[in-house]
Amino acid sequence: MNQLKSLFMTAYMMMTMIVSAFAAWMIYRHGMSPAWVGVMLTTAPALLFLMGTMLLQNTAHTRRYLPLPSLLALAGAGMAGWQPIVQSGPLLPFALAIAGWMGLLLYIHWYSHFGREPSLRLVTGARLPEFEVRDLEGKPVSSASFAGKPAVLVFYRGNWCPFCMAQVRQLAARYRELEAMGVRVILISPQPYAKNAQLAKRFDVNMEFLVDDGNVAARILELDQRNGLPMGMQVMGYDSETVLPTVIVTDANGKVIWVHETDSYRIRPEPDTYLEVLRINKLAPGTDAAALMPSHA
Question: I want to staple 212 with a disulfide (CB 3.0 to 4.6 A). Which of 46, 181, 190, 192 is the partner?
Fold first, then answer.
């Protein structure tokens, strides 16, 4: 299934670009035909959304079902279908509009969701399972060393994922508040060392950027995702296997007090959520923060 999703994302991006460009060309040549405007509505908003998230990297949390692009695409399919159905016009715009609309539906309702089960290795109130990752110099770092201070651990997919980058950006912006609370911020990714080093240099804050070489830690924690990389991005040095985005909050004793295992790659928890969990635990150590706040989405 993940292989199909990997192929779909690359094909969908190409399709939206080609169809949007073709529809724009037809409008330029033949005027504001409702059919071709309809085609544009089924692909251009989705393309702008995807390109915007990739270029700006400032969105870590979207609406689950993207209502505006969905409504525009539905309206566009209706506009494109009016001519061939009512006036016996050409079928090509209608066919392209249906393809654009169906592609958007697949992206929202199928591709965006992982269909994951909560990890059985991450249990609130229990110690964080032991695993080993590496620092940017390749030196081993044991998860046991995270104890001693509260910690926010973020497992993210890599620099190629705009929602991961937005999540890291949000953390960097709120880092001083976490630092004032004595909290370690630990970012873990299976991406190559050079990519992690670029990210650490880019944000230049005292957060720990660690590498899960070979995705071993993700497998131990049941967070690995095979064939999660969009097809074609392997040429940039990324591995096809990646990690399911996950946030883990531990206390100073190394016990898990909160876990967020998103089921949509477009939905990440806000830093305010981590801060509230940490404040709750600081005021009442041992409090089941997971019972006070939703831990899975």
Answer: 190
Contact 141, 134 (CB under 8 A): yes
* pLDDT of 85 higher than 60: yes
Alpha-carbon distance of 157 to 68, in angstroms, equals: 27
Q: What is the 3-state secondary structure (H, E, C) of the chain?
A: CHHHHHHHHHHHHHHHHHHHHHHHHHHHHHCCCHHHHHHHHHHHHHHHHHHHHHHHCCCCECCCCCHHHHHHHHHHHHHHHHHHHHCCCCCHHHHHHHHHHHHHHHHHHHHCECCCCCCCCCCCCCECCCCEEECCCCCEEEHHHHCCCCEEEEECCCCCCHHHHHHHHHHHHCHHHHHHCCCEEEEEECCCHHHHHHHHHHHCCCCEEEECHHHHHHHHCCCEECCCCCCCHHHHCCCCCEECCEEEEECCCCEEEEEEECCECCECCCHHHHHHHHHHHHHCCCCCHHHHCCCEC
CATH 3.40.30.10 residue spans of the chain = 132-292
Name the token pair of 81: 């279908």
The residue with tokens 């770092």 is: 141
Looking at every residue in the chain, the average pLDDT score rounds to 92
Would you give the end-to-end CA distance of the chain in angstroms? Answer: 21
Kindly report the pTM of this predicted structure: 0.90
Task: Give the pairing type, strands 140-142 and 242-243.
Answer: unpaired
CATH T-level fold of 132-292: Glutaredoxin (3.40.30)
- The pLDDT tens digits of the residues spanning 54-82 come to 999 989 999 999 999 999 999 999 999 98
Tell how far CA 36 is from the center of its chain.
32
